Amino acid sequence: MRFARIRIWPLCNLRCVSSITLSLKCETASGTDYARVRMLIVSTKHIDVAAECIPTHQLLNVAGERVPDRELDHYVAKLTESDLADFLRDMVVLRRLDHEATALQRQGELGLWAPLLGQEAAQIGSVRAARDSDFIFPSYREHGVAWARGVKAEDLLSVWRGAQSSGWNPNEVNIACQQIVIGAQTLHAAGYGMGIKFDGTDDVAITYFGDGATSQGDVSEAMVFAASYQAPVLFFCQNNQWAISEPVALQSRTQIADRAHGFGLKTWRVDGNDILAVYAATQAALAHCRNGLGPTFVEAVTYRMGSHTTADDPTRYRKDEELQKWKAKDPIDRLVKYLHVIGADVQSYEQRAQNAADDLAAQLRAAITAMPDPAVGELFDNVYSEAHEPSTRAREGYLSYLSEFEEEGH
Amino acid sequence: MATTMLKALNQSLRDALTEDEKVVLLGEDIGTLGGVFRVTDGLKKDFGEHRVVDTPLAESGIVGAAIGLAYRGYRPVVEIQFDGFTYPAFDQLVSQLAKLHYRSRGRVKMPVTVRIPYGGGIGSPEHHSESPEAYFAHTAGLRVFAPSSVQDAYTMLRQAIASDDPVIYFEPKRRYHEKAEVELATPESDSSPKAKVLREGDDVTVVGYGPTTYTLMDAAQAAEDEGVGLEVIDLRSLDPLDIDTVAESVKRTGKLVVVHEASRTSGMGAEICAQITESCFDYLEHAPLRVTGFDVPYPPSRLESHHLPDLDRVMHAVDTVMRHHEATEGAAK
């Protein structure tokens, strides 16, 4: 029986079998050992697990060739060449934003930065599939999601500079403040989704989080709540393989997508460096939510090519070969290759994207280096929304204390 | 009408649900059962399952979902079933609910009320008798209310629900069956209740809140029999703390005793004594004293009568500040 388990899991993960029949064919083709395993499996519960293993969808392979996918093809059928060029521009500009932010941190203009290098397709593909009225609850790395919704790059970076606690008005762009406590925002999405259901609209609450977050109790609780009330919530997990120094295997011994399935969520697993697959799966998940069929989960399998934050040194815990392996799957290269495959004028699209990136970088740098520190009174602003006497006294006391120095001419 | 605190709370929730369709109730067993104490009795039947929501058994989930509902424009009222079960929700309360208004620079309001039946004296097992109020009074961004009377239970809950700030609302569960006349008044226009002088006196200021105010009123009667006048102050709101009302009283009496069930170290009593010492030092005739639960985990219920401040321990502290005897080491704790 132990032997059977050892054999079935690699098969499941590597080949992503989607049905019992396929699974058994694979094994049969591999020799008599597998045939024997097959018989054992049929007689155990493990065959159920194997059969339910969520497949990984891919619409563009590493060579940039379009791979047919019966379930998801429909969702990209209407994308035009111009849409693809926009995806390219978004990803190129976002990568530049990330690069500039990292540089600004190194130059002392930002206190910290959490790079998203490598996750451009996962972020742009998913947010471009959503409606503006869908409300997003992000973690601290979803810079691309906020930027794509219209948040200015300098407003994004102002928080990482320490100039303000939030760079945007959540009610204007329908994105909550970035969340630093791992997984805490998923519960807010569950509650928001309950509110959408009470209101009877077809909006969706979308929450972003990483593979590490799936170990947090809050994420499990959020899936329980969303499932119990059949709330329209999309749980979008960017499995970037690493939670600072801890590999995804430490968070989950099964595919993350399989765990979500266990909570009763309709689940997709996609190649997160394939922007078409991400876009399509997100569309499918959102449609499911809008149709009142309950919460959904998308696991986008991607890779954090940079450090966890600018304070991190990934060379201490992962090998360069791994990074090189994932560089070969780069999401931007992949889309460029596909544009070549379909005969698009790639050079002009790349030039346009590069110009947009240059413009953003120049404007961002100027804005950040000129950004003033907040006025000292802001220290006390907005702790409460209504009158709070002790808070008022603390403000007045401190401002009066400071004014004594001014009067003395210090 | 004369009613119990339980029924007053129920009526308060009922009136809030009636007046504002954005008010929703969330909690474990609050719907079909009506809550383990029956505070929400009948509300699901009258307002529907989308207004009075039975939740999965996950406190962090309950508070987190309430935050999401507030983002959506709702005004959630959460019930944590017992005080000791608040801690699984600690992050959502302290790092999320308390800070979102500040974090969002005032753009996101969190009008969430978290009702917590708290305190001991009912003979319960562990985790059912705790007084965790100081954690939340220590956290900027939260308001902390602790009603003691039946009237306040009604009025202050309306006030908490009407507030655009998050309010942790501590209900003195061992006083749930107290009965009194209640006026179904609309909430005060202030965002938080002020401290109230329950009984005037010239000799010693005694300060409490929630379940202990009843003990303080008994002490005032006992002291009067001995010719000592206690001024009894019910704080009502622990954050913001209406220290002015306490200070005005101490400036007349020169003596202060603070009483609570929660543990002594870094509790509300420590804060009140510190603030009064800072502002009334020249008026004090004796060091302020605290009569509190001990610095122990809440004990087995057969020991709780020793842990909870009772009439004798309060009177002992009163005698000490009156210098009727020298302080006995440990007794006034």
Automatic annotation (TrEMBL), chain B:
Residues 3-178 form the Transketolase-like pyrimidine-binding domain. The keyword Membrane does not apply. Gene3D superfamilies: 3.40.50.920, 3.40.50.970. Keywords: Oxidoreductase, Thiamine pyrophosphate. The keyword Repeat does not apply. GO terms for molecular function: magnesium ion binding; oxidoreductase activity. InterPro entries: THDP-binding, Transketo_C/PFOR_II, Transketolase-like_Pyr-bd, Transketolase_C. Its cofactor is thiamine diphosphate. This is Alpha-ketoacid dehydrogenase subunit beta. It comes from Glutamicibacter soli.
